[in-house]
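Risk register update: the risk of archive-format incompatibility is retired. Evidence:
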Amino acid sequence: MNIEQLAKNLTLSSNDIWVANNQRAIAFPEDGHSECEQVEEKSFWFYHRNNCLIDTMKNFSPQGTIFDIGAGNGYVSKALSQAGFNSVAVEPGMIGAQNAKNKGLTVICSSLEDAGFFANSLSAIGLFDVLEHIEAEKDFLLQIKSILKIGGKLYLTVPAYQFLWSTEDEITGHFRRYTLNKLTKKLVNLGYKINYSSYFFSFLPLPIFLLRTIPSKLGWRQEGSLETTRKEHNVQPGLFNHLLNQYLELELSFIKSKRQIPFGGSCLVVAEKATNS
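Archived output:
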C-alpha cells in the first residue's frame, strides 16, 4: 500500500512508521499506552470487543483497508489482521505507535487532522471507543465522512448510556456516553447510511451502575489504580469465568446472525458514506 497516495502530510521515518510532518502535541499521559497494554492481553472486555468487531466485519465487509483511527497499542488492528482484514493503525502517540509497530502492523503516527488524508481516499475507518473522547463530535464525523469513499464503511463503538457516567469517564477523558437511537440519528443527519447497529456487553450496565456510578455520585469512588483495572478486566478461571464465556458466546451469536441486542454497556454501529454532501 502506498500511504503517500492517500495522505499529503506523511513521511516514512527511520523506524518504518509513517509520521506527520507537523505533529501537534497530544493531551495523553506518556504511561497511558503502557498501562493499557498491560490490561489488554488478559482482558475479557478487549477480547470480546475484538470478537464482536470481527464478526460484524465478516457480515458487513470493508471494500479495502481498514484505517483504525486512535489505534492505541494496535490491539484491535492486530486482531483484524489475524482475522484476514487489511488494517492500518493510526495513532498520534509515539509510544502507542511503536507498540503497534512491534506487533507487525503498518502504522501512522499522527492525528487524523495532521495526516492530511485526501478526500474520498479511504475505503473503511474504525473508531473503536474514540468518538467519546472528541469534543467537537459533529466536525470530527464530517471530517471522517469527507475522507471516506462513497459507500466506504465506518465501524464505530462507544460507551452506552449517560446515566452510567462515573469517575472513570472523567479520568479517561470522555465527553459523553451514547444511546443507539441518538447515535444513529446523528450519523444519518450527517449523510451516513446505517448498515447495522446493536448494543453489546448486555450484562454490564447493572454492575457499572452499582460499582461505579453510584459510588462516584456519593464521592466514594476515586481514581482507580492499575491493579484495580487489571482485576476488573481479568476474570480468573472458575465457574464465573465459564458462565461469562457462555454469555459472551450468546452475544456473538446475535451479532453473527445480524440481530440487534436491545441493551448493553457499549454501542456498535456500521455506517457507510451515502453522499458527498
